[in-house]
Amino acid sequence: MTAAQIDTDKLMAFVFRAVDEVGATLNTALVRMGDQLGYYRDLASHGPTTSAELASRTGTPEPYAREWLNAQAAGRIVEYDPADGRYSLPPEHAVALTDETSPAYLPGFFQIALGTVHDTDRVVQAARAGTGVGWHEHDADVHVGCERFFRPGYAANLVSGWLPALDGVVDMLTAGARVADVGCGHGASTVLMAQAFPRSRFVGSDLHAASIETARARAAEAGVADRVVFETVPAQQLGDARYQLITMFDCLHDMGDPVGAARAVRAALEPDGTWMVVEPAAGDAVEDNLTPLGRAYYGFSALLCTPASLSQPVGAALGTQAGPARIREVVSQAGFTRFRVAASTPFNTVFEIRP
Hints:
Layout: H1 8-37, H2 39-46, H3 51-58, H4 62-74, E1 79-81, E2 86-88, H5 91-98, H6 107-118, H7 120-129, H8 140-162, H9 169-175, E3 178-182, H10 188-196, E4 201-206, H11 209-222, E5 228-232, E6 243-249, H12 258-268, E7 269-280, H13 292-310, H14 324-333, E8 338-344, E9 348-354
Parallel strand pairs: 3-4, 3-6, 4-5, 6-7
Antiparallel strand pairs: 1-2, 7-9, 8-9
Helix pairs in contact: 1-6, 2-5, 3-4, 6-8, 8-10, 10-11
């Protein structure tokens, strides 16, 4: 076999691209650091500043502030003016890094990525053993970061856009309906719906007991605990109750037995009810997803979502980039006959599914 001819320029281009990859990996931790130490909030509040001023205002040693700022400047997250040695956070970046009400808010995205990477050794061991890694086995940054990342998008879109895109659902909720929010995590989606529709009643469920405890606290803080019940049960066990609306937010692809979950939804749904599934934005073909967002989602899929599915019975491992056709296949196997894309954002696709 003839040895491949090496293009030295192409090799070095890849090496320097790899250097950028390492910088990006370290930046995940640096963003988390800036979030935790209040560096971004301070820069957003005070404008151009020196490392000494940032350190003084945040109560941290100047060397930490200095090296953090330089790394952020090299990564073009903050701007550096060599004329006066000051650093500034562009207002657009400030929105993404400090405004928790903005759908562009990103610290949770970095937090869940950091927690996911932290557990790589465990995932490698599971891959060698042919097993999985359960959601409950992951670093707490995964659980907290997940809510921090998804909640702003839900707050911006769920009540104002996604639910109105479903045929007749808003009127039903306004009049009063029974709703199951399956795979609710910390309950962000459940609480948002309960706040918007006081005549409806909600049952949130999740397999992760610690998340359910947090969800109960969130409901109490929001003043909707009298209309929301949270339960620690798998998606395949919805009980004997019947619902007019069942929702799943960014969780169907994590399930070991998504078809079994879909059948449980079918059995629990009223004949004229609606199942709303929100999934990560994806195309049906691999080449459709070879984008920066697809890269991030495939990364989460390999290290977080697929191992979670493989840790459960069946282990279907749909993957984070399953795509509409694969989701349609799952729900069709469960007996649903109506399926459409009802809404979308850069991060999510919303499916309306009916018997």
